[in-house]
Amino acid sequence: MDRVIIVTGASSGIGKATADFFSVRKWKVYAFSRKSQVQKHTNIQHVVMDINSKESIRRSIESVYRKEGRIDAIVNNAGFGAFGAFETSSEEDRQSMFAINVFALMNMTQEVLPYFRKQMSGTIVNVSSIGGLMTYPLFSIYHSSKWAVEGFSESVHYELKPFGIKVKIIEPGATKSNFNSESLQEYQNSLIKDYDHFVNGLKVIKDQSFMDAVLPETVAETIFQAVQDPSDRLRYLVGNRRSKSLALLRKVLPSQWFISILQKRLNLN
């Protein structure tokens, strides 16, 4: 029997790579996205879903279960980033970020849980970011959304273990995907001149990071490994050596030491 997986944000980047990766490994993939997609693989079914509508989410997941009689895994990948000083962000900026990066992920998880509990099995993969472990200036709303994903995922990890349901967090570093261009939005009038001093330091870090950024297919492979992993491991970091080094330093150094290192990299001292 083919195993069944749902992937959100599956029209491009990590989501598309994940759908393709599972498809060639004989999984039945339901690729959820906002727009209809051309059917290229016989075992990928594209589903148009409004990620901001709980009713659309409920109907879409229910239709998969009715058709297949099971759901083995779900990958909550839909999300976007935004750039700009917090002072210039609008309430709408903040609400739209959390609506997709956090609340849609929670709604997807909530709607699939009755089926997973009935099966006493299932894997929830939440795509976070290295930005859920550490922060840079001018990304405060994005970082806060990813820290919310980290906290939510870790908490439900405990809640769902008795039902045989696994929760996995994927933490990509710099990745070559549309997220770096199309999905990285800038707040309107995003930089008051008083914040200009952050920009050059961030530009250097961005250029360094994306010089050897990992491919979406590399992240997809990590997602596949996480779904296949029978252990209770929660977090899976994937990225270039620079991303992994920063994550390790964040973990082992006292907080103020790590902050000092970042301030130096950003020329803020």
Automatic annotation (TrEMBL):
Gene Ontology MF terms in the entry: oxidoreductase activity
Gene3D superfamilies attached to this UniProt entry: NAD(P)-binding Rossmann-like Domain
SUPFAM superfamilies listed in its UniProt record: NAD(P)-binding Rossmann-fold domains
Keywords from the UniProt entry: Oxidoreductase
Membrane-traversing stretches: none
Oxidoreductase found in the keyword field: yes
Pfam families noted in UniProt: adh_short (PF00106)
Family: Belongs to the short-chain dehydrogenases/reductases (SDR) family.
Protein name: Short-chain dehydrogenase/reductase SDR
Species in which this protein is naturally found: Leptospira ryugenii
